[in-house]
Design brief:
By secondary structure, the chain is of the alpha+beta class. The protein is built from 5 helices and 10 strands. The chain is 23% helix and 28% strand. The termini are far apart.
Length: 164
């Protein structure tokens, strides 16, 4: 789906949002937050996880940037497959049609589950990928539960303290 198609999906959800343009070189979370003044705890990353079965199983997980997705614990248990991992950049693009730095839960394939860490829902507003590296979407977290196939999951991510 094109980045404009992603924005059409967002507009159709009936939740107020704002498009935030960004320099594609600054689209990665830490650089974006530092350059544009957003806090990591208000930045929500969409991460594609693959269950290494035959056929492969995918799930899109939305977690705050100040947490770490529990891919080898909570995600693996929920998928019900013994081996899970983060999808590669190439696999992410093939499944979502989006590149890392622009991946968003909006406009994903209709059969792809979207799991949202409960901490995301506790924020007043979140900044998410916008479907390409040149834009982000700023909205209340309720926009995520307006998506089909979305589910809020307890302890999908773990607290993370960066090394000092």
């Amino acid at each position: 789906m094109s980045a404009d198609g992603v924005l059409a999906v967002v507009a159709g959800l009936g939740v107020e949002f704002e498009v935030v343009p960004c320099d594609p070189k600054l689209a990665d979370t830490a650089e974006f937050c530092a350059a544009y003044g957003y806090e990591l705890e208000d930045s929500a990353n969409t991460i594609l996880v693959v269950g290494k079965s035959d056929p492969r199983t995918y799930v899109a997980c939305v977690v705050l940037a100040n947490t770490r997705l529990d891919v080898n614990g909570r995600v693996k248990k929920r998928i019900g497959i013994r081996r899970t991992s983060f999808a590669s950049g190439e696999e992410t693009t093939a499944v979502t049609g989006m590149t890392i730095g622009g991946v968003t839960p909006f406009g994903l394939p209709a059969d792809l589950p979207i799991w949202i860490d409960e901490r995301v829902m506790q924020r007043r507003r979140i900044i998410l990928g916008g479907g390409s590296r040149d834009r982000k979407v700023l909205a209340p977290p309720a926009i995520l539960t307006a998506l089909p196939n979305s589910e809020v999951v307890t302890d999908l991510a773990k607290e993370f303290t960066p090394p000092s």
